[in-house]
Amino acid sequence: MKRALSFTLLIVCTLWLYAASNPDFRFRHFTVGDGLLSNSVRAIAQDSKGFIWFGTDEGLNRYDGISIKDYLFEVKDGKSSYISKLYDAFGALWIGTEAGLYRYDYLSSQFQYIDIQTFNGIGISSTIYSIVEDKDENLWISTLGQGVFKYNPSKQLLEQYPLQEHEMSIPTLMVDSENQIWVVLNNVGDVLYRLNKATNRFEPFPLHHSQPDMQSGSLA
Fold it and tell me: Residue 146 has what DSSP assignment?
C-alpha cells in the first residue's frame, strides 16, 4: 500500500513540476456539453494528422483542436455503441467494440466491420480490450472470452490463440523491442504469458522474486 501511495505521489509531483516549468502547458476539460457523446471515455488515440479520437460509451468523437465532431456507425447485432479501444495503424483507425473490430478509413470516411474468420470459422465477436501492432504488420487483439487474435490486414488473415484461461478477460497485450508478444491475464494463477514463436503458442512466463530475509534483522 505504501509503495502504491508513493508511486502515485511521484506521478503527481512529476506532473506538477512539468506544468510549473512549462507556463504554456494547459489542460482542457471536455464533457457532453462540449460535444462528447458520453462523459464516460474508454479509449483515446491520436492519428497521424494530430486529431484526437475519443471512444465513449455512446460512440466515437474526434477533436481537431477547436471543436468535437460525432462519428456514428451501426454496430453489429444491434449492440450498443460502446467503444473499448482505439488504435491508429496502416492508415486507418481501428475501433474495438463489444461486438468485435471495426476499421475507419480516413480517406473515404467509411466504417467497415472486420468480419473475416479464421480457418476454423471463428470471427472476433466479443469485447475488445487491447490492440497493438508488431513489426511484421500484424495487429494483435485481446478479447473477453475469445482469447487473442492475430490479424494481418494486407493478407486478410486471422488467427486465434485460445489461452488455457481464454474465457477470462485479457486486458493487456504488449509488443517489446524484440518483437516478442506478451499477454497479461486477470485473476488467474499464471498472470504473464509470452508467445513461443517456435510452437506458435502462448506459454506462461514465470515471475521470480526473492523473499526478504526475515532472520537478518529484528522487526522490533
Answer: S
What band does 134 get if pLDDT is binned at 50, 70 and 90?
very high
Residues 11, 2: Cα–Cα separation, whole Å: 14
Please compute the mean of the pLDDT values over residues 81-100 and round it to a whole number. 94
Q: What's this model's pTM, rounded to 2 decimal places?
A: 0.79
Residue 214 burial (C-beta neighbours within 10 Å; 0-12, 13-18, 19+): exposed
Closest CA to 141 of 126, 121, 155, 119: 126
CA distance 194 to 205: 6
Nearest of 153, 149, 77, 155 to residue 120 by alpha carbon: 149
- CA–CA gap between residue 182 and residue 175 (Å, rounded): 6
SS3 215: coil
Place of cell 506462461: 204
